[in-house]
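Note to self: the last two entries modelled the partners one at a time, which told us nothing about the interface. This time every component goes in together.
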Amino acid sequence: MDPVSTASLEVSGLAFAYPDGHQALFGVDFSIARGERVALLGPNGAGKTTLVLHLNGILGGGTGAVTVAGLPVGKRHMAEIRRKVGIVFQDPDDQLFMPTVREDVAFGPAAAGMKGAELEERVDRALAQVGMAEFKDRPPHHLSFGQRRRVAVATVLAMEPEILVLDEPSSNLDPASRRELADILRSLDVTVLMVTHDLPYALELCPRALILSDGVIAADGRTGELLADETLMRAHRLELPFGFDPRTATMGA
Amino acid sequence: MHVPDGFINAPTSAAAGVVAAGAIAVSLRGARRELDERTAPLAGLVAAFIFAVQMLNFPVAAGTSGHLLGGALAAILVGPFTGVLCVSVVLLMQGILFADGGLTALGVNITVMACVTTVVAYTVFRGLVKVLPHTRRSVTVASFTAALLSVPGAALAFTLIYWIGGTTDIAIGKVATAMVGVHVLIGIGEAVITALTVGAVIAVRPDLVHGARGLGQRLQLRVNGELVDAPPAEKARTAPAAARTSRRTLWLTGLVTSLVLAGFVSFYASADPDGLEKVAADKGIDAKVEDHAAADSPLADYGVKDVQNARLSGGLAGVIGVGVTVVAGSTVFWAVRRRRTDAVSPASTSV
Amino acid sequence: MGAGHAHRLYRHGHSPVHTLPPHTKLAATFAFVVVVVSTPREAMWAFGLYALLLAVVAHRARVPAGFLLKRLLIEVPFVAFAVLMPFVAEGERVDVLGLSLSVNGLWGAWNVLAKGTLGVAASVLLAATTELRALLLGLQRLRLPPLLVQIASFMIRYGDLITDEMRRMRIARESRGFEARGVRHWGVLAKSAGALFIRSYERGERVHLAMVSRGYAGSMPVIDEVTATRAQWSYAFALPVAALVVCMVGWIL
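The predicted structure of the combined assembly is written out below.
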């Protein structure tokens, strides 16, 4: 099969400067095939968030192109693009803005025009995928942080995205919630791009990793190999937690 | 300061309701133009902020404390349109959820506390910022003065409403003196806290102070600790130039409509339609009221003549008045809503 | 404010009043208060009947009298105002217990007290029998401008969060030995208020990003539509209609 047509996400020559003159991206190139789970690693200020906001067209106007499942990101297909690219933001309280879990999960599909039994069914399926079905009628702020993060994932899954983009999915989670979320992410049959500082989590979930540094992709390879390359890691201000050795850790994927 | 039911008579309350509805309709359009599709989340969060800040108690002296009303603060921080919306929503929720302020007095409360405070505060603030040198200190001074004047301004507006439709006959001079006197004191507290709060915001995020814009700063989003320009802001930046005139006409139409309606309705509201201002006793009230109604009311020959009982005729006029205002108010809302949905559909495709 | 499903005034229950569609209850309460306000104050017996009507509703809704009476306390500041009226009002005066009081003022005080109390009681009953979410749906159904309903719903969703942030800031202040005691400390409190505003506003911006990412384009998708049957409408309107009869009789007599 032609690799271009099967790619979930294709970013080429993406450069972007904020109107105040600060340039964040200096030509980013990468491609993610359908079904892949990829980690996007990088130090603070590397432009990770800027990149993420380009994926569904919230930011734009620089040079280069982003293509989602063959569809160029641009004004013409914006609704379709936003349905295909599901971004899970870092703070679930920002993401869960509706009064009940059910309405929040329904928001995306309903905005796309779905209603009635089909909508209910979609909501139930997404909640079941993250194991939150019994919390359907609860207000989001009565849930624990880990539960809220899972509902946040469900809100995006309900849109049946082509690619799931997670911004720091493991932040603020206790070890049990962290593992539960990992299990859920592994069980999903969807392309995943995970933006994170959490290197063990990246290793556990993503066979492949990209390192974004100074606005370009500085490395692209197998997660285990990248993490084991000490010079590379140090050059990009990435540090493994104390006592963690990527060579001996077992990969969950 | 929340006015309960029964404080202001029904027709005047209805008239105030129409003014409030008109002001909200205008603000909805204005806020949408300022904030675009970000209106709902931003105004909602600012309303939650106002709500929270009203619970923040500022100790005054041993044992007593006051709290911020927030109208001036909202106007200066997020602009008059969004300010009116935020305070109105807070009042609406307080009325429905906490029974704080009567349901029929909602119009009065919104007119006085949401509209008058924000408009007075914003006008004073903008005027001072224009006149004073362009420094942070001027912004602080302007916010102080704006908040200081906005509270007694609201008190005066309330006095005016009370004068038109108050249910108890208290000399208007007394009401005005008492209201303004007390509220000048409250206003000083409001002014100090507003000025300090605006100062605190300006020190960290000057771009967020709506009233101090125009120094060439752009709107930014802070996303995960990074400053990011909001793309919609650019759209908004180019749009107003063309939209300015239409906005102004809209403003004027809204204002004039509201005022005309209010003036019209309260005109005969003051002509004693509900018969509440007189004690029904042995004073030959029937004849008197009939004269009164016939002389002053524009609805005098509106079939009311046929009704012999003068009190009933007054009541009928009142009911008609309420009906007229309700219909007028709904029409304004309906028209605005329709125009807005028309305006939304192209926007939704272009985003 | 206890946001979400269980706000402070709400009493969970399954009475006939609880199960009425929210917009019928809102409309009925409003109509009732309008009728009460339009009643001549001289018809003292009418207000007694209104109170009786509300008592019947409270009974049907299984709202205990103690609960209702406690909620009426919100009125207290205006009671103080009403007590002043007989002293300051104009017109004919009578001597009561050696005090010279204005007849008009006495009537005014009675008027405000009676109508104000009935208004508060009606609102309290409404809030006690209607969930917050349902209230918003009801307002939406009553054709309140959708943008206004959205703003209200965001305010309710994030009210708790922001009040909580405020509480945390207070705790942080107090842990460092600061206690606001007088005017001299206003500066510190105002700085907190400023910080709270910035946090609220920035959260608003992030919420907006999350909404746009899920296809928001300025209007909320309709997920729940509340409807009412003719029977429900007539059940809800039994209260204001009964009140209207009382009011009419009050005008004629």
